[in-house]
Each structure stands twice: as C-alpha cells, then as structure tokens.
Amino acid sequence: MFFLKNGQTYEKKEIVLIDDSNEKITLTFLNEFANNFKGKINTKITLQNTKINDYKNQRYLTLSQKSIVFYDVDKTTNIKFVEWFNRNNRCLKDSVGNGHNMPGPSGE
C-alpha cells in the first residue's frame, strides 16, 4: 500500500518481467490489478493494452483501465501473440518512449 499527498491510499505491487533474452522491465500493478494478481515466479503473463515508458533510462509498463492481464495463456493464444509480435516488432521498437499504443494480437 502507498499513500498520495492528498491522503488517498492505493494497493501497489511491482514485478520484474524477464524475457528469453534476459531483458528486464518493471510492471506496476495498482488497485484492483494488485489485489487480483495471480502470478508466481515463472508464471507466463500476457498483457494487452499496456503502455511502455522510459524514465531515467529504465523501461516500465503502465496498465490502464482498458488493460487486460492473462496468466498462463494456452498455446493457441501464445502462438497468436508471437505472430503479432513478429509482425509489429519494428513498430514496437520505434514506439517505445513515444507513448504510442499498438493494437494487441486481437486487433484491439
């Protein structure tokens, strides 16, 4: 839990995601995302409608109310995601830090 200057409290969980290339990125869960977090070490997580940001030379992911978190997705969903990522990899690299949102594998 953390507090804001206005006295409001929020639930907060931070996790570090690591891919096969050992790249790391911090994902912060707030409020209902923090309360509903189901992941454990080595859980595969797929995120939809998230934003990648750079701050002080570190990358982090931001969730919004439109974000969806999937845990241990089935093989079919994972294949769709890999295909989408491979098609959009260049666009993703160009958009990091620019605040651009890419449509997810389902087109959303």
TrEMBL record:
<dbReference type="InterPro" id="IPR012340">
    <property type="entry name" value="NA-bd_OB-fold"/>
</dbReference>
<protein>
    <recommendedName>
        <fullName>Replication protein A OB domain-containing protein</fullName>
    </recommendedName>
</protein>
<dbReference type="Pfam" id="PF16900">
    <property type="entry name" value="REPA_OB_2"/>
</dbReference>
<feature type="domain" description="Replication protein A OB">
    <location>
        <begin position="5"/>
        <end position="68"/>
    </location>
</feature>
<keyword id="KW-0238">DNA-binding</keyword>
<dbReference type="GO" id="GO:0003677">
    <property type="term" value="F:DNA binding"/>
</dbReference>
<dbReference type="InterPro" id="IPR031657">
    <property type="entry name" value="REPA_OB_2"/>
</dbReference>
